[in-house]
Write a structure and sequence with these properties.
alpha/beta, Rossmann fold, six-stranded mixed sheet, 43% helix, 21% strand, Ribose transport system substrate-binding protein/ribose transport system permease protein, signal
Length: 344
C-alpha cells in the first residue's frame, strides 16, 4: 500500500521551509531542478510556483528553473529542454496524465527523479516513473463545498457546475466531489448543467451565459476555480442576478478570498498550493540527500465563507466548517488579512 503523508496544518509553513538546509547535498554549486506547471495566468498556479521558488531560495543550494506552459505540447517541449540541460530533478503539474507518460519514461532513462504536483498518475510509482505525488484530496475538497452549499439551499434547487479543462483530473475530481456532497446534504437539489470552462474567466462568462439562457431559474453556481467564479459573476451581473444567485469559487486565491470577504462569492474552497510548491522542493532535497520520501503528500483542504473570513480577520484561531473545527494558523491568517487589505 502506498505510504501517504498529510501535512500538519498548524505547523506546515515551518516544516516546509525548514529541513535539510543544503548540508546533505554537499556541493559548492547550486543544483539545477526543473519545474513546469500549467499556465501562470491562473493565480493559484502562480502561487504554487512562487512558493517553490521561495523554498528553493531558502535552501540556498537549489537553482529552480521554473516555467509555466500554455498547453500539453508546450509543456512537453519545455520538459524535454530541461532533461537536455541535465536537471537533477523534475517537478511537473501535467495537463494530461496520459500524454505525460513519454516524458516520464525519458526522465527515467536519464535517471532524473520526477515529482508530480496537483495530480496522481496510476501505476507510475510502481514503475519507477514518479517519486512522489503532491496533491490534496480534490474529491474531498469538492465534497466540503457541495455539502455546505446543499445545506444553504434547503429544498429543491437547480445548480450549475463549471469544470476546468475536459481532461484535467483535479477539476473532474473536484466537481465529482461537489456533486456528491450536494446530493448527500440536499437530495432534492439537482445539477442541471455541468460544463468545462477551461479554468478561464472569459470562457466561464460565455459558458455561464449559455447556461442561464437554458436554465434561467438556476439557484446557485459552483466553479472549479476562482477565475471561473468571476466569469460566472459577470454573467449573473449582466442579467441582474448578482447577489441573488450564490456563487462558490475554489482555490482560495487572494482575489478569490477578497471577493468572498466582500460577499461577491458566497464561499471559497481553499487549496494550499503554497504548501504544494514548498513541499516539492523539500521532497527533492530529501531525495537527493538519499532519504526515503513518501509516495504521496497531501496538503489540507477546506472551505471558508464570508462570515468565517470575517472571523479570521478579527483574530479567530479556529472556525467551524460543516460542523467541524478547522484550525487557523499564522500562514492562513496572513493570507486572509492580505486579501482583506487588498494586497493581491
Amino acid at each position: 500500500m502506498a505510504r501517504k503523508v498529510l501535512i500538519a496544518w498548524g505547523v506546515a509553513a515551518a516544516v516546509l521551509l525548514a529541513g535539510c538546509g543544503g548540508q546533505g547535498t554537499a556541493s559548492d554549486q547550486k543544483i539545477k531542478v526543473g519545474l513546469v506547471t500549467q499556465a501562470w495566468d491562473n493565480p493559484a498556479i502562480k502561487d504554487m510556483s512562487n512558493a517553490a521558488e521561495a523554498a528553493a531560495a531558502a535552501k540556498g543550494n537549489i537553482e529552480l528553473l521554473s516555467q509555466d506552459s500554455r498547453d500539453m505540447q508546450d509543456m512537453v517541449t519545455k520538459l524535454q529542454a530541461m532533461i537536455g540541460r541535465g536537471v537533477k530533478a523534475l517537478g511537473i503539474e501535467p495537463w494530461d496524465k496520459q500524454q505525460i507518460m513519454p516524458i516520464l519514461n525519458q526522465a527515467k532513462a536519464a535517471n532524473i527523479p520526477v515529482f508530480i504536483l496537483q495530480s496522481e498518475i496510476d501505476g507510475a510509482h510502481g514503475k519507477g516513473l514518479v517519486v512522489t505525488s503532491i496533491i490534496g484530496d480534490e474529491t474531498a475538497g469538492g465534497t466540503v463545498a457541495g455539502t455546505w452549499l446543499g445545506r444553504q439551499l434547503k429544498g429543491p434547487a437547480k445548480v450549475a457546475v463549471l469544470e476546468g479543462a475536459p481532461a484535467d483530473t483535479p477539476g473532474i475530481e473536484r466537481a465529482n466531489g461537489f456533486v456528491q456532497g450536494l446530493s448527500a446534504a440536499n437530495p432534492s437539489a439537482a445539477v442541471v448543467a455541468r460544463q468545462p470552462a477551461d479554468w478561464a474567466r472569459d470562457k466561464a462568462l460565455r459558458v455561464t451565459t449559455d447556461i442561464l439562457t437554458a436554465h434561467p431559474d438556476v439557484h446557485a453556481v459552483f466553479a472549479d476555480n476562482d477565475e471561473m467564479a468571476f466569469g460566472a459573476i459577470s454573467a449573473l451581473e449582466a442579467r441582474n442576478l448578482k447577489g441573488k444567485v450564490p456563487v462558490v469559487g475554489y482555490n482560495g486565491t487572494c482575489i478569490g478570498l477578497r471577493a468572498t470577504y466582500q460577499g461577491t462569492f458566497a464561499a471559497d474552497g481553499i487549496l494550499f498550493l503554497d504548501h504544494v510548491g514548498a513541499e516539492f522542493v523539500n521532497s527533492v532535497v530529501a531525495r537527493l540527500d538519499g532519504k526515503t520520501v513518501p509516495e504521496k503528500v497531501e496538503p489540507p483542504i477546506t472551505l471558508l465563507t464570508t462570515a468565517q473570513l470575517k472571523q479570521i480577520a478579527e483574530g479567530a484561531k479556529s472556525v467551524e466548517v460543516n460542523g467541524k473545527p478547522f484550525a487557523v494558523d499564522a500562514a492562513l491568517a496572513k493570507r486572509v488579512n492580505d486579501a482583506v487589505a487588498g494586497r493581491c
